[in-house]
Every structure is written in structure tokens, then in C-alpha cells.
Design a protein that fits this description.
mainly alpha
């Protein structure tokens, strides 16, 4: 079972709701060109709520702290000029996430939480089995 479907669905909705998404593509090449421009925009310009309104590029390339600090400075300036507009006090930008996952690595740990299995006991890959050759005598009685 995969639990990344909600993420895929959200991504697909973002793709389809963009004004540039056509009713139809003229060819496979047209779809590829559109996809290339969409993913460039999605990764470098689109601010994701799950990333503290940062872009994936900002997070990936280590610019997150700089972006959050710049936003904090703008908000502090706005608050200093018009504190009456901020009844809750000095506004703060969304915090940069410490981790971002589609499928967190502890998924197996959550699935086995009710069992006595420790994470270190879980297999890292399926065990290999040697299969008997066709026509080889069976070891079963």
C-alpha cells in the first residue's frame, strides 16, 4: 500500500488548475514542453504551504533561512509603521520546516507500533529465496 497518493493528487490539481494548462495537447512533444515549464515554475517560483511558503528550490539549495529572515524584516517594518493593523502583535513568517517527506522513513515503525518488532529488526529488503529448477527433485515428502 502506498500513502503518497494525497500528495500526487494535490500536485496534479496544481498542474490542472494553472491558467496555462490546455484543454488538450497537440502532441506528446507539446505535453513534454508544458511539463518542463510547469515543473520549473513549481520548483522555483511556487510557494508551498507545506514548506512554510518557501519554494522547493529555496529549501533544497539552503536559502530557506535567508528567505525567512527577509520576510521577518519586512513584517517588522510593516508592524513598526502601522502596529494598529496587527492586533495580534508582531507577525512572524511561517517557520521553515525541519523535515519534509512524502513518505516519512518511520512509516514502518508506525505500522509496527502495536507489535514488539523493533525498527532494527525490520528487513531492509525482501529475503532472497532460491527456487528449485524445473524438473529438480522436490525436498518435500
Amino acid at each position: 500500500m502506498s500513502n503518497d497518493n494525497p500528495s500526487s493528487e494535490a500536485h496534479f490539481k496544481t498542474l490542472k488548475c494553472r491558467p496555462a494548462f490546455p484543454d488538450r495537447f497537440g502532441s506528446l512533444q507539446d505535453a513534454r514542453v508544458h511539463g518542463h515549464s510547469f515543473f520549473t515554475w513549481y520548483n522555483t517560483e511556487h510557494h508551498h504551504s507545506g514548506l512554510g511558503l518557501l519554494t522547493p528550490s529555496d529549501v533544497h539549495h539552503g536559502r530557506a533561512e535567508q528567505r525567512v529572515a527577509a520576510r521577518a524584516a519586512v513584517l517588522a517594518t510593516a508592524y513598526g509603521m502601522h502596529p494598529e493593523r496587527f492586533p495580534g502583535g508582531l507577525p512572524r513568517p511561517p517557520a521553515r520546516p525541519t523535515e519534509v517527506w512524502i513518505n516519512p522513513p518511520n512509516t514502518l515503525v508506525r505500522l509496527h507500533a502495536g507489535s514488539r518488532t523493533r525498527p532494527s529488526d525490520l528487513p531492509t529488503r525482501a529475503p532472497s529465496r532460491s527456487l528449485p529448477s524445473i524438473g529438480a527433485p522436490s525436498s518435500r515428502p
